[in-house]
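Dear all,

This email documents one entry for the complex benchmark we are building for the journal club exercise. For each entry we list the sequence lines for every component of the assembly. Then comes the predicted three-dimensional structure of the complex as a token string, followed by one or two observations. Please use this as the template for your own entries, and keep the labels exactly as they appear.
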Amino acid sequence: MSATVLDLLTAVLVLSGGAMCLAAGIGLVRFPDVLSRLHAATKPQIFGLMAVTADVAINNFSVGTVTLCVAIVVFQALTAPMAAHLVGRAAYTTEHLRPDLLIVDELQGHRP
Amino acid sequence: MMLLTVAVVASIMFAIAALLAVYRIVVGPSVLDRVIASDVLVATIICALAAEMALNRHTDTLPVLLVLALFAVLGSLSVARFLPARDSA
């Protein structure tokens, strides 16, 4: 791969990771309640991390680096939804949400 | 030259994202908002470390990324699990 293409790929991936983080920050400040902030917060945890670790892997291409990057993405993909699920459930059971913003509330009547 | 510009722009993006997350941690209003914001802060730190590695073409902090990806969940998980009902703190 020529140096220019590699530089361009690096730039695009780093900037997309940065854009994901920036979008999460803006969403945290501007969104109205816990559940919508949770929606904004989970973007950089998976997609931003995938972009920047793919960038590390293509810049230092070797078996060890690629394995470690895949492991990082896999572990993050295992743990981030777990935390998001628990926070969302806690938000629902302790009523840290605005019911007027919900379009459908399928747990209405049988709260966990 | 292009990568220097990219580094500056990406640093500004990460810094603004971290500052907005810190703002949400300070302002609240509920403990779950603070937990979500601290998760975003950790994700921003992970992305910034990885971007620095990619731009400088080294792999020194990859183990740090692995540990953060594994254990960053524990704080928010324990807070969400043991949150008392109708807590407004």
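Observations: Residues 10-79 of chain B form one domain. The helical segments of chain B are 2-27, 31-56, 62-71, 73-81.
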